[in-house]
Amino acid sequence: MKRTMQACIVLLLVFACGIAAAQPMDAEADFGAFLARWRAAIVANDAEAIAGMTQVPFLFESEPHDRADVARMVVPALLTADVRRCLRTAPPLREDDRYVLSCAPYLFYFGRVDGQWRWMEFAADGEG
């Protein structure tokens, strides 16, 4: 009986560790799929698609902007040809529960909102 109980505990621990280990991979795969769609929109210079993957309101020039403003004003201002070229291959860096892409002169932050990955914000790259 004692051996059976120990075996059950070991199996439960192995199962729990397997679930815990699978979650980060699932989150990374999920972000990878989002990033592939976002990069395709970047390559196509599709401001509407980019705006659709952006958390709104989006703060730009100290003002909150809706989805239409993101497509009309934010995307052309921030995503210049040089920045778009960089964003095609910039490696995502994990920062807590978010990811960051660095393309001078900006850092682009991505996070989950209601279970969906979104472009959340940008910042000036102090090293860029």
Q: Categorize the overall geometry.
A: globular
Order of helices and strands: HHEEHHEEEE
Total discrete domains: 1
> Structural class given helices, strands, pairing?
alpha+beta
> Which percent band covers the strand fraction?
25-35%
Protein described:
The chain has one domain (26-124): Nuclear Transport Factor 2, Chain: A (Roll), CATH 3.10.450. The protein is 53% helix and 25% strand. The chain contains four helices and six strands; from the N terminus they run H-H-E-E-H-H-E-E-E-E. The chain has helices at 2-44, 47-52, 67-78, 81-87; strands at residues 58-60, 63-65, 93-95, 98-103, 106-113, 116-124. The strands form two sheets. The chain has a four-stranded antiparallel sheet.
How would you summarize this macromolecular structure in one to three sentences?
This protein has 128 residues and is α+β, with helices and mostly antiparallel strands. It is 53% helix and 25% strand. It is built from four helices and six strands, in the order ααββααββββ.
Question: What attributes does this structure have?
Answer:
two-stranded antiparallel ribbon; 128 residues; alpha+beta; Nuclear Transport Factor 2, Chain: A; 53% helix
